[in-house]
Amino acid sequence: MSHVVIIGCGVVGAAIAYELSQVKGLSITVLDSQPPAQASTGAALGVLMGIISQKLKGKAWQLRQTSVQRYETLIPELEAITGRKIPFNRQGIVSLCLEGEDLADKQKLLEIRQSQGWELEIWDKAKLQNLCPQIVNEQVTGAVYSPQDRQLDPTALTLALVAAAQHNGVTCKFGVTVLNAQSSPQLTPSENSPQVCHQLETTAGTITADWVVVAAGLGSTPLTSQLHQKIDIRPVLGQALQVSLGHPLGNPDFQPAITGNDVHIVPIGGGDYWIGATVEFPGDRNEIPPNQELLESVKQQAIAFCPELASATIVRTWSGLRPRPEGRPAPVIGKLPGFSNVLLATGHYRNGVLLAPATAYAIREMIIPSNSQ
Fold this sequence. Notes:
Elements: E1 2-7, H1 11-20, E2 26-32, H2 40-43, E3 47-48, H3 58-82, E4 88-89, E5 93-98, H4 103-115, E6 121-124, H5 125-131, E7 140-146, E8 150-152, H6 154-167, E9 171-174, E10 178-185, E11 195-202, E12 205-208, E13 211-214, H7 220-226, E14 233-244, E15 257-260, E16 263-269, E17 272-276, H8 292-305, E18 313-325, E19 332-335, E20 342-346, H9 352-367
Parallel strand pairs: 1-2, 1-13, 2-9, 5-15, 13-20
Antiparallel strand pairs: 3-8, 4-8, 5-7, 6-7, 10-11, 11-12, 14-17, 14-18, 15-16, 16-17, 19-20
């Protein structure tokens, strides 16, 4: 039986653990220095911008499409196994169009998505006002509506993935740090033969592995450095806030996620909304103290779109560091260069929740190719 060790239990690591738990012949251990969903996952808004994204083709689009399709079956599957309710908004995403934006680009996106079998709608200002009367802004000229995109609670999702994986026999060890990764040449070495990472030294002892999956976000850089194949992942801070109105905005029966100018207004029930998120890059020392002015700016932009939010009470604010690959596109999915059994599933930047199911499929395929299942 092959032993797979997954390092990192944010939404990506948890999705991989659950996906692999359905494969016979694998023994799976998940390691994380903290409880699940504590880092970037715990600060995400869970807005799954797949169909409405500007990624039109290639790997970036395929990952999105795979995940959007999988979420429709994954959520009820996890709820059935765990008995947990995962907040999952099926009312779509409304992307506001602002003055000066080229509607020809929106029409092109609509036509491409229709050719791919997906729905999008272009709303004029009158239709937007009718369906989302809470949007009152002279600069908003209309919207693109994506009825098949979704929003969910990333923490609830991650905890359900962990519970379902454990139900299927996965061992999870939290509060455990990887101290060192040991590697050696393959048994039949040649001049260009890859290395094998066969053993991890951890604060809970030595763990042997047939496969190592690095899904540790920002923690991926020190781990890969230990194997002398550094994958450079840099932090980008995101801040968000939760506000309470005590009643729904606009039409109580139509509560989609609304996005405009990279500001999200996300209904979470009970008249509460998430608003976010900032994008804050590190300074010279890689430090990012949260910038309160930027968070206030995001809040004010949300109020500019939806003036009723001005009377909302702030319930809480929070922040998290997103893992962004340096000098290469996000995410990083594939074998660690020079190694036959170390797989990377990291650096998802702002799309970890969106791309978690597709990433899990990709890792499963690397370990158990379809033609050998």
